[in-house]
Amino acid sequence: MNYPSQEYWNGKNVFVTGITGFVGSHIAEKLLSMNANVSGIVRRRSSLENIEPIKHKVKLIDGDISDSYSVYAAMKEAQPEVIFHLAAQSFVPLSWSAPLETIRTNIDGTLNVLEAARKVDSVKRIHFAGSSEEYGHVLPEESPVKESQPLRPLSPYGVSKVACDLLCYQYGKSYNLGVIRTRTFNHTGPKRGKEFVTSNFAHQVASIMKGKGQPVIKVGNLDAVRDFTDVRDIVNAYMLAIEKARVNEVYNIGSGTGVKIQDVLNMLIRLSNAKVDVVQDTERIRPSDVQYLLCDSSKFRNETGWQPTIPFEKTMSDLLQYWIERV
Asked: Of 78, 83, 215, 233, which is least packed with CB atoms within 10 Å of its CB?
């Protein structure tokens, strides 16, 4: 198992879009532990809760990913050698109710980052965080999914990430930007927003444990199977991608193990010892859904030496504890 190199990151200027978000806050913490100089663009209305312990150690620059000038100004000020582009409207169900906002936020934001990067001479590597949702409709015989799998997105979010993926490929080829694209399968852990399925279940269970809600858990499609990886393993993967992956290539990142959503719920209930009733909520059912997603990350593992190390039950236990401390 390879881990990110202290020698590589020591003293490096790193710019993180989405630094206050789920993965962004985790990667900022990891970079600081390796003595990197970390900066990021932040909207004034953004919550800083996720980076509260480290906000005095990072350089936060006011701006908005959807505003081209503020992205360029922030990047020019930061003079990064490495960019992690993580900012996005990433909640798939919201993309159904706000498709235009999702498309504009994700595509315009990515274009603004790429345009700024080609104008700032310090930039040597850019990581774009794509998504398994780009694959969309995967037939049973097509799983586990390789990078060569046709892209058939089933949500406005998935469509937006395909467009961003292709923009990154085009800019990488056209301007020699050193772009590395990843298509990451489901990832979770502490600080995951409660709108996402694992965190939503953990939040509901924690509320019941602390007597702050009825002993009823509302659910959507429990039959779907997803490939979950701990966010802390994903952070290691993204950093190794910068260190070792080939530019202008795309890589799947995931555990390679499928977990049924029903089993996620059962695990959290078992960890809590709570007595609950489970009720399906029709509002949690998507207009179209990817039923089965399993990742083939052999290309990435072979080239970088990465592999996940945190067991899924440990991830769920840490996530549940995170919500127990906050509800």
From this structure: 215
